[in-house]
Design goal:
The chain has 256 residues and is an alpha+beta fold. The chain has helices at residues 59-64, 68-78, 93-110, 117-128, 173-196, 211-218, 236-253; strands spanning 2-8, 11-17, 32-38, 45-54, 83-88, 132-139, 144-153, 157-165, 201-203, 223-233. The longest helix is centred in the last third of the chain and has 24 residues, at 173-196.
């Protein structure tokens, strides 16, 4: 289990990741508690599906769990000598900002949420607890980063918070396919890296209703399980914040 504390809009916020035990009573100074992928159900949390790989299996078993098509994609780029795999176990502030810039280019093209200064602060707080791993693959011939994956880790479990590649920035179908294959390789290499360092679980970071993303994750194999995420108010200020958040989400869902 991981936890970080931060302040926003005058509120004291505690964010807990991968909760496995009771967290009550909560410190009265905390206004809002964010829970990410708790193994325990609690009132106010939403059940989510996630996919987990058992890293206690040997490497051959883990690879055999992967779909035939994805194994083929990995093998197509596995011996490419122009690819440099980079794993940052203690990323600097500059390295985190470089990732943010890369990710936000990807997010704008995909029309999804940006990595905001608030999220960057979260990454730095995790880094300060040795709980952040940034991985990427670079094409050394082109001096170009092809893809990133950013993980929250607790020594037992590795969960990607961000994943990004720039294949959408070009209409070149060959390059798009190449980058997609490199991303598959990065996931596989990351799994083995975590396994070799004693991690037990490689988590997908949740399964969405987007069938393309869901199917991509499922092709790496693993077990679908249910965990719980959301926010818990611990003060009047926290309850007010949750009401405002719920109102904003309802407006967004209605397209207002």
């Amino acid at each position: 289990m991981l936890s970080i504390s931060k302040k926003m809009y005058g509120m004291n916020i505690k964010q807990i990741f991968f909760q496995e035990k009771n967290i009550f009573p909560i410190d009265s100074r905390i206004d809002l508690v964010g829970i990410t992928q708790s193994t325990l159900p609690m009132e106010g949390l939403i059940p989510i599906e996630t996919l987990q790989k058992d890293l206690t299996k040997n490497e051959e078993e883990l690879f055999n769990d992967i779909s035939k098509s994805t194994k083929k994609r990995i093998k197509q780029v596995q011996k490419n000598e122009s690819l440099q795999k980079i794993i940052l176990t203690e990323p600097s502030n500059q390295e985190i900002l470089l990732f943010q810039n890369f990710y936000n280019q990807f997010a704008k093209k995909k029309q999804t949420h940006l990595c905001s200064p608030y999220h960057v602060e979260t990454l730095k707080l995790l880094r300060d607890q040795q709980a952040l791993i940034i991985t990427k693959i670079k094409d050394v011939n082109q001096s170009q980063i092809l893809c990133y994956r950013v993980y929250a880790v607790d020594g037992k479990r590795a969960t990607p918070f961000y994943s990004a590649s720039h294949y959408r920035l070009t209409p070149n179908t060959h390059f798009r396919k190449f980058v997609g294959n490199v991303h598959c390789l990065l996931i596989w290499e990351n799994m083995i890296w975590f396994k070799n360092r004693g991690y037990k679980i490689y988590d997908s970071g949740g399964l969405t209703n987007n069938q393309n993303i869901r199917n991509f994750k499922l092709k790496f194999g693993g077990e679908i399980i249910t965990e719980y995420s959301g926010y818990l108010a611990n003060s009047l200020l926290g309850r007010a914040a949750l009401h405002i958040r719920k109102w904003k989400l309802s407006r967004k869902n209605r397209g207002e």
